[in-house]
Structure formats: structure tokens, C-alpha cells
Amino acid sequence: MQGKGENGSEDGSRRKRLRTGFSTGTAMTAAARAALRRILSGKAPSWVAVRLPVGYYLAVPTAIVAATDLEAEALVIKDAGDDPDVTHKAAVLVRVSLTAVEGQCSEFPRAHPQASLGEGAGSEIRLCAGPGVGVVTKPGLAVPVGEPAINPVPRQMLAENMAEELERSPWGVPLESLRTRGSAHSGPEAFGRNRHVRLALPRIPGLSARVLLDVRVSIAQGEELARRTLNPRLGIHGGLSVLGTTGLVKPLSHEAYEETIAAALAVAKAGGCPSVVLSTGGKSEKLARKILDGEPDEAFVQIADFFAFAVREAARMGFDTVVHSVFFGKAVKMASGLPYTHAHKAAMDLKVLVRCGERVGAEPRVLERIAQANTARHALEILLQEGIRDVVRAVAEDALRWSRRFAGAGVRRLRLLLFDYEGRILADVAQEGGAEENTA
User: Fold this and answer.
1) Rounded to two decimals, what is the model's pTM?
2) Could you give all domains of the chain from N- to C-terminal order, each with its CATH number?
3) Which residue has the higher pLDDT, 208 or 183?
């Protein structure tokens, strides 16, 4: 996500119409569909139409990079539009092999219920995480531990599109030939143990045999790219996640960031963390870690500007304690009761500083200087010059009161660490059972 820094300053960029892209789940599905079409028809499509979860089709450019009678590998270049996504322009490679079988495909234990798309469907996909696609190692995510980090919606999207391709294709390769030749692979060992999952295909009208599709998904440089995401912290090892709930990527989407926050909180909860530390970015998290050095890595969650959403989610998940780590500019917006603190949506209003100053008995001369300050940073400089730290503490207390309003009774203890722009602690305020406690 881009925008403004965690200290509350504007980025000044001109707003423009932003281009929508498509998700890694759509890229995976398009490549798989193109590879299957090459097997079935002998033709190498330059694009395929992918049915999205939102109900319509999207044309996605594809390229076939390798093919035999029973196996093909296709490439799709992920296009995230104007979203600042680390997966933008990533090469998504999908290898598909086709086998027709007489009986039920039952070599693998059934996946979790969300993966099952049709009761009694005899045809299946054996989905494998290839190089650059992560594997889940911690509980709390939408995918069970040990499975490829390919989320439920992309899995469903893949199964539905592959079934549709099987139904619509002219079947240039006869099923009898598939029966006699067998699979292009020797079995699950060819795909790597503990990196595959079985998906049931919907029933396919007119298909005379049960079909097994081996699908291996890889992302070029995925392991390197994943280091720039939250995957290591979420316990996803070995590469990127294949994501998407609509199949599309909306630039700078609130929904995408909220999903990331919720996932990080879920991992912390599943890991047994009683407390969670909500920071506005990397700098404030680093400062909080120095003070809270006993907290596990999973407890630290960066929430950017999503103040109210993060607190409500933490309360809903049942965390005992929520700690905020913020710089002064964000604290001022939190103290104003703004649920979302980005500059474009929440202009800085220094009236809250004046009210805090009045509450602690600041001189009218100082209140006037604060009211005329250009920025929160400027106002803080004035307060520190005047030696009035009580106003700073009052801001922290008001921010914590709003946190309590958003959290309700779901969180027992709230705490706020307030830093100046050089990283020095300005205030450490806690609230338990409705009463504020000043610890610094």
C-alpha cells in the first residue's frame, strides 16, 4: 500500500483514474485453462476467457511454454493494474497433465470442506505447490497447515474453469488413448509430498470417463518476492500465496488491506498470543519491539490507517490486550475519533489539541500557538518548547478512549505507546476496566 507516511504527512500525489488488474488466482486459473486446452485441442491459445467468482469472464493473455500429448505448461504474466503489488508482472507457470481413469480418483485424503465442489463427482484435480508457491505452516489461515498456500476461492475458481474447459473442448485427444497411455506422471511423488491437495471437480455433462488432472503451480522468483510480503510472519514458507476473492485487483483497495490485517490477527490468535500490538508501519513496530521485547513475532501487526477496523477485529477474535504503537500525527487523528486515518480521507484537525490543552489548563497564549500550527509535528514542537507534556499525554488518553469505543467490552486491557518523530517515547498510557493508567 502506498499513500502517506505513518507520521501523518500528505504524499501530495495527484489522484487519477486507476487501472484494475487481476489476482494471482486468476493468473493461475488462466494458465491452467490454457494448458488444458492445448492438451485437449492441440492448439496453443494466446488468450483464454476465465470465469471469475463475480460471475463474468475476463480475457487473460497466455503462452504455452511446453507441451506433449498428455501434458502442457502455460505462462501468464500477473497484471495487478495500478495496485502497488509485489506480484505485479510475476510469471505464473502452471503445468497440467491429464489422465483418464476407470474408478474413483481416491489416492489422497479429502481436503477440507471448502475444497469439495460437487458431491459424487468422480473427476478430480491434484493441486501441487511448485517452486515459488508457499506452503502453510501455521494455523489460523483459510488453508490448513501443510497445504499449498492457494486460498479457497482460487481453488474453487480453478476447479470450475477446468470443468468448463473439459465440457466445452472438442477433445482432440481420445479418451481411449488416454486410458492406454496412462498418466504423464508416476504419482504424487513427482509433485512432492505434503505440497498437494485434492479438489473434486463438478460433474461434467457428456464426459464418459473419470478424469484426473495433475496441476502444478509455480511462480518465478516467488520465494524472493515473498520476503517482501507478510508471508514469513504468517507462517507461509517457500513462496507467495495464490489469493483473490473476486478474481480482480482493485488499486489501493481497502478490502485487500483489511483482509491482510484480519489474516495477521488470526495467525496471532491461533498461535496463542493473548496480546496483539497494532502499529501503523514498520518504524512504529520497530520501536514497540524494543519496549515489548517479550512478545512473539506473530503478536506484531501493521495496520496502517485502519484504526477502527483493526481494533474491532482484535476484539471480535477475543484478544485480552491490544497495544497501539503510533507517532504523534496518527495519535492526534485517533484522538479525534477518526476510524480511518489516511490523509485523503481524514484531514488533520488540530482542534483536538486545543481541547486537550484546555483540559490540562494550558495558558491561552499556548493554545493560540497550537491553533495556528501548520501540522501536528509543528504543534508538538510548540508543546515541547513550552514544556507542556500534559497535553501530549491527554492526546494519548483520548486516542485510547476512542480505541475503547471501537473495541467495546471485547478487550480487557488497552495500551498506547506514543512516540515523537525521532523515536523517543512521549507517553505510555494504559486502560483496564475503563480507568486510564499513566505509565509514562
Assistant:
1) 0.74
2) 21-249 (3.30.2110.10), 273-438 (no CATH)
3) 208
